[in-house]
Amino acid sequence: MQTVEVIGAAQQMNTSDMTVGQVISERTVQQIPLNGRHFLDLGVLIPGSVTAPQSGFLTAPLQGLGAASFDTAGNREDTVNFMINGINLNDMSQNQITFQPSIATVSEFKVDNSSLSAEYGRNSGAVVNVATRSGTNEFHGEAFDYIRNNDVDARNYFNPHPVPMSTFKRNNPGVDVGGPVILPHLYNGRDKTFFFLSYEGLLQSQGLTINSGVPTTAQRATASDPIIQKLLTLIPEANDSTGTRFLGSASSPVTVEQYTGDLLDNIGKNDQIHLYYAWQQDKRNEPTLPGETIPNFGDHRTAHRQIGTIVETHEFSSNVVNEARLGFNRIAISFDPNFVANPTSYGINNGISANIGLPQIIVSSIGLDFGGPAGEPQGRFDTTFVLSDNVNWLKGKNTFNFGGEFRRFVNDNFNQDTSLFIFNTTNSFLADQAIQFKVTPQDVVSRIFENSLGAYGQDIYRINSRLSLQFGLRFDWDGTPTEGQNRFVGFNAATDQLQRVGTTGFSSIYNQNYSFNPRAGIIWDITGAGMTVLRAGFTMQNDEPVTNLVSGMSSNPPFATPVLFTSNAQTPSVSFADAFTAASGLPTLAPTTVARNFSDDYVESYNVNLQQQLPWGLVSQLSYVGSHGVHLRLALNQNQPINGVSPFAALSPQSLYDPSKGLGNITEYNSIGSSHYNALWATLTKSFANGLDFNTSYTWSKSMDLNSLSTQGIILQNSYDPANNYGLSDFDVRNRWVFSSVYAVPFGHNLLTKGWQISAIAQLQSGNPFTVETTSSLNGTFGTVRPDLLGAVTPERVRLSSGAIQYLPQSLCYTPTAGCLFSSNGLHFGDMSRNSIIGPGFEDVDFSLQKDTTLRGHYTFEIRADAFNVLNHPNLGQPLATMSIGKGTITAGSFGQIVNTRFPVGDVGSSRQLQLAGRIIF
User: Fold this and answer.
1) Which residues form the TonB-dependent transporter Oar-like beta-barrel domain (predicted)?
2) Average pLDDT score over residue span 564-571
3) Following DSSP, what letter does each residue of 250-291 receive, concatenated?
């Protein structure tokens, strides 16, 4: 029967369509050295992709699981459309990948990241399509184990002698088998029915390197408050040479199991059906998420994930093929604090009397973060159902594609809250004077439904043998989310009231949720011989809003009462002993709402690229790629104070819920964000021949936006002037080079010298930008007001005796003085731009050496040694960049210091790590 897409051979010259993307072949997927064996790390091999910044919301790697997304082509990390066998693999609560299938089950990894086909909608970013392995007419299988141990690794840069080296032990076994389905005397599936089964596990014991500021011995002695004295017993003593920092590690065990089944059946000469199912469970401890800096805190997480796909391909004729797909993906996950306690036993009055944990406590000046985590315990149970159909029709000079897709997403949530306290300095912590307190004391539940529908039509018209035009149009309707028990409550600014969605005048959260997105492109084979191809394309894509956008509306009165206290002139602080009581008497109700005119965003994407076939199987490509994002999601403080006075002092007496209740911050999600991306991509690729293939690319790019969504919630300095936030994107990287290769060494004919293979990945990129902020609460939101910049900033790289790196000079002042760089009294908005300083770059070389030995029969034994970050280059994280403002003073503390690597031990680029693997193949 006709095959629409051939799996396994990566096409180099593209003379068929305008899409800019890349296929990574099965050979590369299976053989390239990947730290942690996460297939999503293959994304960094694609032109336009970057190694993620340290602060990524979805791109920062999780222990044992890797990242949940990646940054490419100037798109936000939550805009990538993940698909497996054509079925959506995104968890729509925040649009991350539901889970990463085992590398052993992946046949092909394809990324399209500009000028997308009209077939693809739902997201404005890259399309990642994973094709899974199926069986063949021959029985094949393998059993393997990947082993790692810190005894052969290098120390993390921030884990110096004589501090014990952080533990890292990993065992990653697996087995898979595939072939024809044969039931003796019952069924012979050769040439017809094939199966593929796999199992992969992960057992990991890891200690994450800790380097945190803590109170000094002298400071501890000044604490007289009994609550503070109890909390100090939870904070380890300083053990560095300066007596100001704690160096150590935090335990982070991980257990993962994944099972996969695949069945392919050629029903007849015109029909084929493909079934795939995968199930994964993981249990892991995240001691440093979200943000904790000392041992015994963070959270532990338990998750179950599933994906199922059914694809039926029918050939109506030699030129008409239909592909029908049905599938689902599902995740059930819970987050629970590691440190469980009843806050009342410590004398803390935060509105919580359950045994769920202590508040999350942040001491800004020294970067200390412990307790909590705030917003936990929590969990969700999400299911996405997908039904789609696509037709490919070849008629004369036309290649028509048309079809549609229906998706239904069900999102069940539950939340409790340990609360959050923020202290400006160590002294304010010891004096029990918090400048911010936040809590939602009630349990919050929601059941959210979201339906979506897409339809498209496209034609590639071949004018002549050299020139083709591509036109398409896609319609997407993203249904407005609804809550099963009508528990969404929003703030109506026109009436100054809380209003339940579904009532008169508030029939739905928002209504601007459909779009028509055109596609247009040209493909010109200049010579007619497929040697030189010029392509150009323009597309518009939109993003289906995530349900995290609206889930906060279920935590408003009457179902819950979110409280947020922020320091002000009248009440500069609250204490642990009276926080909830004091805050409840102040205007601190902090509802979350969505703008009534909220609309789906859209991104205009455009490119021009030239491909050239070169000798020796080489292909070069030079591309200009750009995009412009419009109506991007952005959070505003709708009640930002003006000269200390909030526009909405209290709810109206006519409000159905909490009439006359004093109002604090009002978080409003709006669609007024924008972005721009311009880039030059240059690639050189060698197709597999004589045992060698490679791919190398250089990217020059500049990405700018109002908000990159790396940090959730309100990040604007001034909600009345969002344009003031326009600057470099959090993931902006000016220069990046990447190289990857697999090479079967051709020498040797005896058992010892033949069967050798080497493979490598090398990455080199400039740094990501970051923002200097202050602890001012001028705008009602901690950590968003920027200082004045009084001179040019030249980053330093001074190694301190504490082990930290002084990256920014501690040239801080309350009022402008000679020689000062950063000035702020916290009483006005600073003139320093967002993301105006560039952090450390990223350099990493991963190398693999492999030996295959043929045994008797059809067995092969493979032994493999991997070296990650083989040069042991310390890839530094971003510096602590928050200025702590006191009464007429600035506390330098740990300002400007780098205290960790970009990613923890065990993930890409942290320190040199060695891995040994053995594999039996039959």
Assistant:
1) 132-915
2) 88
3) EE--EEEEEEEEEEEEEEETTEEEEEEEEEEEEEEEETTTTS
Residue 757 pLDDT greater than 90, yes or no: yes
629 pairs with which residues across the strands?
A: 603, 675
**489 within 8 A of 497, measured Cβ to Cβ:** no
Q: Give the per-residue pLDDT at 769.
A: 97
Question: In the predicted model, is pLDDT for residue 360 greater than 90?
Answer: yes
Query: Identity (one letter) of the amino acid at 21?
Result: G
Cα–Cα distance, 784 to 770 (Å, whole number): 12
**Ramachandran region of residue 585, left (φ > 0), alpha (ψ -120 to 50) or beta?**
alpha
φ/ψ (deg, to 5) at 647? -60, -35
Q: Pairing mode, if any, of strands 320-337 and 71-72?
A: unpaired
For residue 576, with 0-12 CB atoms within 10 Å meaning exposed, 13-18 middle and 19 or more buried, which class applies? buried
pLDDT at residue 906 in the model: 64
Distance CA 888, CA 890 (A): 7
Structural tokens at position 914: 């060695």
**CA dihedral over 66, 70, 76, 79, signed as positive or negative:** negative
* Span 146-193, pLDDT tens digits: 999 999 999 999 988 888 888 899 999 999 999 999 999 999 999 999
What Cα–Cα distance (Å) separates residue 662 from each residue in 26, 567, 573, 615? 60, 15, 18, 73
- Could you tell me the two tokens for 852? 């295959």
Radius of gyration over alpha carbons of the chain, in Å?
28
Distances (CA, A) of 589 to 194, 509, 654, 715: 60, 21, 17, 19
Neighbours of 387 (CB within 10 A): 15
Question: All domains of the chain, ordered by start, with CATH?
Answer: 20-297+307-387+395-592+600-921 (2.40.170.20)
How long is the chain? 922
DSSP character at residue 552: G
Sheet holding 81-84, edge to edge: 20-24, 106-114, 127-132, 81-84, 87-88
Average pLDDT over the chain, rounded to an integer: 93
Nearest to 127 by CA among 46, 14, 26, 15: 46
Q: How far from 371 is each of 54, 293, 294, 466, 882, CA to CA, in Å? A: 22, 10, 9, 65, 20
CA-closest candidate to residue 35, choices 81, 67, 77, 83: 67
Instruction: Express each pLDDT in 511-534 by its tens digit.
Output: 778 899 999 999 999 999 999 999
